[in-house]
Amino acid sequence: MGIRINLDVMMAQRKIGLVELAGKVDITPANLSILKNNKAKAIRFSTLEAICRELNCQPGEIIEYVEDDNNGI
Predict the structure, then answer these.
(1) Angle, in degrees to the nearest 10, between helices 29-36 and 18-25
(2) In total, how many domains does the chain have?
(3) If residue 46 lies in a helix (H) or strand (E), which one and from where to where?
(4) CATH number for the domain including 50?
(5) Which GO terms describe its molecular function (predicted)?
């Protein structure tokens, strides 16, 4: 997949745990874990906004595009 989620990096930099962040952004720890581990297929803008607000960051610090190694094959 060409989209990489760097939520784990941002959480480590901000020294905040999964359960604490999940509570602050009103998402279940299980769903936040799916997002953190690059298993999510989508994210709501409201969730992204809440995460950015709590981590004091920009969406581009959490989400990045990387080219696939297989060149679309």
Answers:
(1) 110
(2) 1
(3) helix 45-55
(4) 1.10.260.40
(5) DNA binding
